[in-house]
Amino acid sequence: RVHTIAAMPGDGIGTEVIAAGLQVLEALAARDGGFRLEVEHFPWGSDYYQKHGHYIPEGGLERLKAFDAIFFGAVGSQQVPDHVSLWGLRLPIAQGFDQYANVRPARVLPGVSSPLKNGQDIDWVIIRENSEGEYAGNGGRVHRGLPIEAATETAVFTRTGVERIHRFAFELARKRTARHLTLVTKSNAQRFGMVMWDEIFYEVAKDYPDVKTDRELVDAVTTRMVLKPKTLDVLVATNLHADILSDLAAALSGSLGIAPTANLNPERQFPSMFEPIHGSAFDITGKGIANPIGTFWTASMMLEHLGEFDAARRLMSAIEAATASGVHTPDLGGRATTADVTNAVCDHIGSA
Ligand code: NAI
Ligand code: MG
């Protein structure tokens, strides 16, 4: 079996963790023998943008379309405004390939300590609507610089968009032991889009009587995540809300550096994109200490998507063996480098 991967390291530590991720993937393919990865590198980061005036060249999405998956690092640089880099690269890919389901698992890996005393209770999957909502790109600025200057940022929710993310969330929740799905909205203050989210959720719920449901406002759910982590299993929320909740989830499970995410086009009309949830981390770029675990976990999700279930499981066990043995980068309180962690995971892959 051959899988084609578009590797897109992007900026900052993105290049460091993607290199580490590819090393681990190669070790897995060599160990398994049943599959091979054909990797093509795409240098579409902020340096490329400053040289060419665009992140994605003419026909770029067309080229990407041919790949089985996209392995993405992070985009963002101190030389380019963040809204330009985000809208220049990551959002056109996610939206262009209709990767509407963003899946973000969170749990505390062995040997890692959570800032919560009951952190071991964290075992969540946050489902983020990834194609519309608050990041639909709607709005504008008027009277720039005048005393009456104003701006709008209009969230757009479509029935199709909301229904498909709820259905996706129910399908995923159904496969888990707890079979519990929490709807997260803000339908007291936001009385149009969020009310529609709630309504459609309960319509879809009728098709999933085996999944327990409950509902929480987004502000209230943050306290529940911290105080009663065990009461949550799968959460479904809008683009903005889930963006915030998943950073909280990552921090509660030990570090932003360990959290993975998959941007899925569940119908598989287009390639899906796999990335760690962290950004390009200017403060540690070039120091060789970026935690690659989030990228490895991401790689495991990518292998699962490619149908390489054994390799995905083997990688997850190797990650857990490495974290359990205490090879930790500074964000987890250790002194290991990116290379130390990568080598530890590769060793466990070899010996598994
Ligand atoms: P960030 O995730 O880059 O960093 C936040 C903090 O977490 C920093 O102290 C950083 O050192 C630490 N951190 C992040 N990943 C780490 C890892 N793997 N190992 C160890 N420590 C890690 O978020 P920040 O600082 O808000 O953004 C920096 C840039 O990245 C901005 O340009 C932003 O727009 C971009 N960004 C891009 C994302 C993407 O491409 N998906 C996601 C988040 C931010
Ligand atoms: Mg985020």
UniProtKB/TrEMBL annotation:
One family name in Pfam for this protein: Iso_dh
InterPro entries reported in the protein's UniProt record: ICDH/IPMDH (IPR050501), IsoCit/isopropylmalate_DH_CS (IPR019818), IsoPropMal-DH-like_dom (IPR024084), TTC_DH (IPR011829)
Enzyme Commission (EC) number: 1.1.1.83
Residue ranges occupied by any Isopropylmalate dehydrogenase-like domain in the UniProt entry: 4-345
Reactions the enzyme catalyzes: (R)-malate + NAD(+) = pyruvate + CO2 + NADH
UniProt KW keywords: Manganese, Metal-binding, NAD, Oxidoreductase
Cofactor: Mg(2+); Mn(2+)
Gene Ontology MF terms in the entry: D-malate dehydrogenase (decarboxylating) (NAD+) activity; magnesium ion binding; NAD binding
Family: Belongs to the isocitrate and isopropylmalate dehydrogenases family.
Name this protein carries in UniProt: D-malate dehydrogenase (decarboxylating)
Originating species: Noviherbaspirillum pedocola
